[in-house]
Specification:
Blueprint lengths: L1 H7 L9 H30 L3 H31 L1
Length: 82
């Protein structure tokens, strides 16, 4: 998700967003090599072979993604209105 955002960032008003781009690049790095694998390991340990727990984890993950999209849409809207 973040890789695509960084690839497509453009500024029409020549605003310096280098700190913002650094944030994304760092986030991608940490998620890829540390947080992602650890999160998967944690979920596997918590859910084990319990289908109900896996379904709950999936449901919560979908909700989290919807809220994340809402957050970034709000940020985009705010940036666009300036």
């Amino acid at each position: 998700m973040f890789i695509e955002i960084v690839k497509n960032i453009q500024t029409e008003n020549k605003t310096d967003i280098s700190s913002f781009i650094y944030y994304f690049e760092r986030h991608i790095e940490v998620d890829s090599y540390e947080h992602g694998p650890l999160a998967l390991e944690m979920i596997e340990e918590l859910c084990g072979k319990d289908d109900q727990k896996w379904n709950e984890a999936l449901s919560c993950s979908k909700k989290a993604m919807q809220l994340r999209i809402k957050l970034w849409d709000g940020i985009f809207s705010k940036i666009s209105s300036n």
